[in-house]
Write a structure and sequence with these properties.
Blueprint lengths: L1 E4 L14 H9 L3 E5 L10 H6 L3 E3 L2 H7 L2 E3 L6 H4 L7 E4 L7 H10 L2 E4 L14 H18 L21 E5 L3 H13 L2 E6 L2 H11 L3 E5 L2 H9 L3 E4 L14 H4 L7 E4 L20 E4 L2 E4 L9 H22 L1 H6 L1 H4 L2 E4 L2 E2 L2 H7 L6 H5 L1
The structure holds nicotinamide-adenine-dinucleotide.
Length: 370
């Protein structure tokens, strides 16, 4: 198959759909991969790095779109990209269609077959192409907290791990899923005193075994959240209620009872945030203060480390991308997990939850593919 990788054009997006290592795998499997010039610049991969592994460099996105049967990207296509997609062309990327009616319209109009990373499933009911970015965000959350805790950044002037004879920071992680677990691992590794709060007892049992006493676990109630937040130096917001906005677990009225200049890192900001006082920020200006509490609410945290993020994303997408390149649309029909990723096919919306949110008609895959 002819596979195309355009340069990402969303503002401040430095990741790339296929790393040179991934291109080598596609080429080894007999596919032709065309990469837009400078597509890998954000991760330090030169055009020559792609040529060495057998990729072909094209000078414009237009050429990549025109000559490829499958486009592999990172972010949802931008308006200038919708019109370059066409029927019988596969698009494999993050889409986040539900809150984006213009995107849905653009893709439906193009007639392309769009498979969204974020809805591809695995046999354990997980979302394998979303998880790597949660891992990155979770780990980054502690780095972000460490920076924000510095006095020069407005924080309490506290070192996360303390030093011998001096208390470490007290870190509370609300939500013990992928983000929360990776945040807790980093915090424990740095020597912080860590508590993880979750509303799933099953998850709390798993975490208890995983951390073997190096992190405490607590069931999520209004009481436990209040008690822990009031005593914390850092609170990481990492809850997710699938398909819904994040619950507001820390209210503004609670801030005045917290330690002055404590830090809130709201990783769940992409779902509206789990602190009442959160609003999205950017890497250029990541923090702000409300009632003496430092807030960090960057909505695309993995964008800060595009090299790590691109590699982690490519590791996860590779088997699915190769299946698509090997078998085309048949891979979607044969593999239930790829099938779960199908959002748009030949002008029809094939992902029920997105169709519902958008108020547009839903077509089951059998109907759309007929
Ligand atoms: N800001 C970013 O750049 C970025 C990057 C990646 C992920 N995220 C976001 O981080 C959030 C967490 O993602 P994840 O992959 O860890 O999700 P996940 O499903 O793996 O984990 C969420 C956890 O929250 C728990 N939870 C739900 N309601 C709760 C409550 N009331 N109290 C305590 N715990 C509760 C769940 O039981 C679950 O264990 C999501 O909103 C995700 O979109 C943000």
């Amino acid at each position: 198959m002819k596979v195309g990788v355009p340069k990402e054009i969303k503002v401040h997006e430095y990741r790339v759909g296929l790393t040179p290592g991934a291109v080598r795998e596609y080429v080894a499997a007999g596919h032709r991969v065309m990469i837009e010039t400078n597509a890998g610049a954000g991760i330090g991969a030169t055009d020559d790095d792609y040529r060495i592994v057998g990729g072909t460099i094209l000078t414009s996105a237009a050429e990549v779109f025109a000559s490829s049967e499958m486009i592999v990207k990172v972010k949802e296509p931008q308006p200038s990209e919708w019109c370059q997609l066409r029927e019988n062309q596969i698009l494999f990327t993050y889409l986040h269609l539900a809150p984006d009616p213009d995107q849905a319209k653009g893709l439906l109009k193009s007639g392309c077959t769009a498979i969204a990373y974020e809805t591809v499933t695995d046999p354990h009911g997980g979302l394998p192409l979303l998880a790597p970015m949660s891992e990155v965000a979770g780990r980054l959350a502690i780095e972000a907290a460490g920076s924000a805790l510095k006095r020069s950044a407005g924080g309490r002037g506290l070192l996360i791990g303390g030093v011998p004879g001096v208390q470490p920071a007290r870190i509370v992680v609300i939500g013990g899923g992928v983000v929360g677990t990776h945040a807790a691992r980093m915090a424990v590794g740095l020597g912080a005193e860590v508590t993880i709060i979750d509303r799933s007892i099953v998850r709390l049992r798993e975490l208890d075994e995983l951390f073997e006493g190096r992190a405490r676990t607590r069931f999520s109630t209004i009481d436990s959240v209040e008690e822990e937040v009031f005593a914390a130096d850092v609170v990481i917001g990492a809850v997710l209620v699938p398909g819904a906005s994040a619950p507001k677990l820390v209210r503004r009225s609670m801030l005045s009872s917290m330690r002055k200049r404590a830090v809130l890192v709201d990783v769940a900001i992409d779902q509206g945030g789990c602190f009442e006082t959160s609003h999205p920020t950017t890497h250029a200006d990541p923090t702000y203060e409300v009632d003496g509490i430092i807030h960090y609410c960057v909505a695309n945290m993995p964008g800060a480390v595009p090299l790590t993020s691109s590699q982690a994303l490519n590791n996860a997408t590779l088997p699915f991308g190769l299946a698509l390149a090997n078998k085309g649309f048949t891979a979607v029909l044969e593999n239930p997990h790829l099938r779960a990723g199908l959002n748009v096919h030949r002008g029809r919306l094939t992902y029920e939850a997105a169709a519902e949110s958008l108020g547009l008609p839903f077509s089951p895959i059998e109907q759309a593919a007929a």
